Amino acid sequence: MATVSISKQLLTKVLSSYIILTFIVAAVQLGYTYVTVKNQIIEDLKQLEQTINVSLTQAVWDISDIQVSAIGQGIAAMSLVRAVIITEESHQVMYQSGELDGFDTKKFLTPSSTTLQHNDLFGYSTSLIYDFSSNSSFGSSNTIGHIAIFSSDELVFQKVGAQMLFPVIGAVFSIILLSFLIKRLFRNLLTTPLETLSHGIARIDLENLGQARLNPPSSQQDELTTLANSFNLMLVKLEEYNASLEQTKLKLVNANQQLDRQNVYLEQEVTKKTANLSQAITELAQQKNELEESEQELLASLTQLKETQTQLVQSEKMASLGSLVAGISHEINTPVGIGVTAVSYLSECVRTLDEKINDKTLTQKYMTKFIEDANSGCALLTTNLNKASQLIQSFKDIAVDQTSEAVRDVNIHQYLHEVITSLQPKLKRTQHKIEIEGADDIVIHCRAGALSQVFTNMILNSLIHAFDKVEQGVMTFKLKHDDEHVFIEYHDNGSGINQESLDLLFEPFFTTKRGQGGSGLGTHILYNIVTQSLHGEIYATSELGHGLNYFIKFPKPKGIVEQELEQQGKGINKKEA
Questions:
Q1: Number of helical (H) and strand (E) elements in the chain, helices listed first
Q2: pLDDT at residue 566 above 60?
Q3: H-assigned helices in 109-220
Q4: pLDDT tens, position by position, 377-427
Q5: What would the mean pLDDT of 3-22 be, rounded to a whole number?
Q6: Alpha carbon 575 to chain centroid distance?
């Protein structure tokens, strides 16, 4: 690869930058000079127009074509002027000289003064205004014609060329002189010292480093002198390094001999360690197999434990449902029994009536008594059958909700009443009561069985655990909501629990009735339903002797009615928009 001199590269870049800068300055100066000269010519044309305005206006007023032509020829003869056009007020040309082909007098000769541009000509146009102040019958003044005087870009370029000739020659001469001076300086200060340094580096001999030392000029203290001194210092360090390298070689030979001896010893040790390692690997493999078997057993146990927990939760649900079935069955027996008795009595009355009709002993008095007894029996039968129907319907709703995953619109207040109705078999044998406070218009779209289990578990938990020593217990539900959430607060005035039990309240299989029928899954199911099915939060507070409180908060799913109203509202807004 060819070597390019640093001084040549620097010279090229410096001169290129200087030339570019000189051309930029020259171009700016040229443009400025062009604009200045052109504006000066326009000002001279304006001054010329002002000089001949009075005489030209009088000649146009007098309609003296000879005088107008003479004035026009005089203007055209001036060195600045390349074309002249003089028109009447109606734009009829009275005099014209110069190349004005295609010039539209109506378009360019306006009442006001203005500058003009036509092809390579530029100029100044103004109106000829005659002063009538001496003759009051014509008013003060009036426009009687127009004049336009043109010069050319060629004249501007001639003047600009004349003004820029000597600066351009001076710039070229300065570039040549500067190139020669910079080249000489680079040669003396950079190229020659670098060549000396490169020749010294080429003479380096590792066996005799002293002959390659450089002798920089004592009068020159610059970066190249520093580089030469650093090169000499490098040679000194190389000599020291060579001496150190010889010593290192001797040490290396001794170390190699010692390393050979050590390798023999290490080979023997490696053989021993390899045997021990093989035995250890075998033992580790056995332990790994044992650990994998233990892990499989643990995973199987964990799976079985989860299945058992799921079965226990399901059993708890079925037990609750079975208890509900037993209670409802007992409740239904009463109205059904009364209905059977009423039907039996009506059958007996009908049989007696039939005998009297057959024996022709039927009297009006007996007929009246029969109708009264029949109406009473029908009323009693209707009342008890309606009661049984209501109990069956409530049981059906609650039982289906507890075993179904169906999602529907639920009015919480009304649904809570249905749950309480289904629990009447357990409540009527006690003096406990349930109070419901708060909003009665909360409608959400959710799995009704989840709400049923929440309400049922809280009520049964109070009946089983809280009211052991309380004759007249009170369970209170407070229902609240806002735009985003539903809040349910539950309170009973039972015996309460201590802080230790409260911390374990939602843990699975925790119960204070162990051995007395308590499974410990009621509050755990309650916690899972609120947090997982309803995506909410639940916590409890309690003190011994002050009852137990549940606080539940979950997002409000929109019901079907609310969704339809929202869609209607969006539709109305779109129509209005």
A1: 13, 12
A2: no
A3: 153-186, 192-202
A4: 787 777 777 766 766 655 555 554 454 556 888 899 998 988 888 788 778
A5: 75
A6: 31
* Helix or strand holding residue 479 (H, E): strand 474-481
DSSP state of 189: I
Residue 93 near residue 85 (C-beta atoms within 8 A): yes
Q: Longest Cα pair distance anywhere in the chain, in angstroms?
A: 166
Predicted TM-score of the model (pTM):
0.37
Q: Return the structure tokens found at 319.
A: 């037990």
Residue found under tokens 């005799």: 208
Residues near 238 by beta carbon (within 8 Å), at least 6 away in sequence: 206, 209
Whole-angstrom Cα distance, residue 327 to residue 419? 13
State in words which class domain 6-176 has: alpha beta
**The residue to which tokens 């690997």 are assigned:** 281
**3-class secondary-structure state, position 120:** coil
Q: CA 396 from chain center: how many Å?
A: 50
With CA atoms as reference, report the closest residue to 430 among 477, 472, 460: 472
Q: What is the pLDDT of residues 94-123, one digit of tens each?
A: 888 888 777 777 765 666 667 888 888 888
Taking phi first (over 0 means left), then psi (-120 to 50 degrees means alpha), and beta for anything else, what does residue 488 get? beta
3-class SS letters over 525-550: HHHHHHHHHCCCEEEEEECCCCCEEE
In whole angstroms, give the CA distance from residue 23 to residue 35.
Answer: 18
Domain boundaries for CATH 3.30.565.10 within the chain: 404-566
Name which of 489, 491, 484, 502 is nearest 544 in CA terms.
Answer: 502
**Distance of CA 489 to CAs 481, 514, 549, 551, Å?**
11, 27, 7, 5
Closest C-alpha to 160, from 34, 32, 23, 31: 34
Q: How far apart are CA 76 and CA 178, in angstroms?
A: 49
Give the residue range(s) of CATH 3.30.450.20 domains in the chain: 6-176
CATH of 404-566, one of 3.30.565.10, 3.30.420.10, 3.40.50.300, 3.40.30.10: 3.30.565.10
C-alpha distances in Å from residue 280, one per residue of 267, 277, 283? 20, 5, 5
